[in-house]
């Protein structure tokens, strides 16, 4: 269930992020902005429960989120995508999923997994700037499901059709949100036109 977050401000930011001359500090700021711009669409159908609110003048109807939010960035690049979501979801808990891509096999290799308890009661938003082959995202979602997560959605900055197909095949019920759907992967598993290695560009390790 792919949704492309289509907004002029997102288009502007993605274009600037693609520029190879964009320095790391600016790159981090722009990713944060895109995440904040995506958040309304990513969370648009979260269930709520009715409540009552006492205003200075009278009691009126209100709403609260039905379930707590857990943000689950895939390390390391997902950390750079986290702040824009956390800024607007300050009460969200944060889990961390460490996966490194083997550059020869292109397969994810887990090295860290630490998430809040009671995942079954939460809305879990998995974060990774790049959805390339889909291997890391699928591995992370499988691990979260094994840990008890039921209500999951995935958000990325740029997606390749191959990665989307992988996730949709493995998890047909999973909502997938991206700011840009790119053309394809190259022979090394990088997204084209893409924006390079997001982790390297976020952390200045190019």
UniProtKB/TrEMBL annotation:
<comment type="pathway">
    <text>Pyrimidine metabolism; UMP biosynthesis via salvage pathway; UMP from uracil: step 1/1.</text>
</comment>
<dbReference type="GO" id="GO:0000287">
    <property type="term" value="F:magnesium ion binding"/>
</dbReference>
<dbReference type="GO" id="GO:0005737">
    <property type="term" value="C:cytoplasm"/>
</dbReference>
<comment type="similarity">
    <text>Belongs to the UPRTase family.</text>
</comment>
<dbReference type="Pfam" id="PF14681">
    <property type="entry name" value="UPRTase"/>
</dbReference>
<dbReference type="InterPro" id="IPR029057">
    <property type="entry name" value="PRTase-like"/>
</dbReference>
<dbReference type="InterPro" id="IPR005765">
    <property type="entry name" value="UPRT"/>
</dbReference>
<dbReference type="GO" id="GO:0044206">
    <property type="term" value="P:UMP salvage"/>
</dbReference>
<feature type="binding site">
    <location>
        <position position="76"/>
    </location>
    <ligand>
        <name>5-phospho-alpha-D-ribose 1-diphosphate</name>
    </ligand>
</feature>
<keyword id="KW-0342">GTP-binding</keyword>
<keyword id="KW-0808">Transferase</keyword>
<feature type="domain" description="Phosphoribosyltransferase">
    <location>
        <begin position="4"/>
        <end position="205"/>
    </location>
</feature>
<keyword id="KW-0547">Nucleotide-binding</keyword>
<dbReference type="InterPro" id="IPR034332">
    <property type="entry name" value="Upp_B"/>
</dbReference>
<dbReference type="GO" id="GO:0004845">
    <property type="term" value="F:uracil phosphoribosyltransferase activity"/>
</dbReference>
<keyword id="KW-0460">Magnesium</keyword>
<dbReference type="GO" id="GO:0005525">
    <property type="term" value="F:GTP binding"/>
</dbReference>
<dbReference type="InterPro" id="IPR050054">
    <property type="entry name" value="UPRTase/APRTase"/>
</dbReference>
<feature type="binding site">
    <location>
        <position position="101"/>
    </location>
    <ligand>
        <name>5-phospho-alpha-D-ribose 1-diphosphate</name>
    </ligand>
</feature>
<feature type="binding site">
    <location>
        <position position="197"/>
    </location>
    <ligand>
        <name>5-phospho-alpha-D-ribose 1-diphosphate</name>
    </ligand>
</feature>
<protein>
    <recommendedName>
        <fullName>Uracil phosphoribosyltransferase</fullName>
        <ecNumber>2.4.2.9</ecNumber>
    </recommendedName>
</protein>
<feature type="binding site">
    <location>
        <begin position="196"/>
        <end position="198"/>
    </location>
    <ligand>
        <name>uracil</name>
    </ligand>
</feature>
<feature type="binding site">
    <location>
        <begin position="128"/>
        <end position="136"/>
    </location>
    <ligand>
        <name>5-phospho-alpha-D-ribose 1-diphosphate</name>
    </ligand>
</feature>
<keyword id="KW-0021">Allosteric enzyme</keyword>
<feature type="binding site">
    <location>
        <position position="191"/>
    </location>
    <ligand>
        <name>uracil</name>
    </ligand>
</feature>
<dbReference type="InterPro" id="IPR000836">
    <property type="entry name" value="PRTase_dom"/>
</dbReference>
<comment type="function">
    <text>Catalyzes the conversion of uracil and 5-phospho-alpha-D-ribose 1-diphosphate (PRPP) to UMP and diphosphate.</text>
</comment>
<dbReference type="GO" id="GO:0006223">
    <property type="term" value="P:uracil salvage"/>
</dbReference>
<keyword id="KW-0328">Glycosyltransferase</keyword>
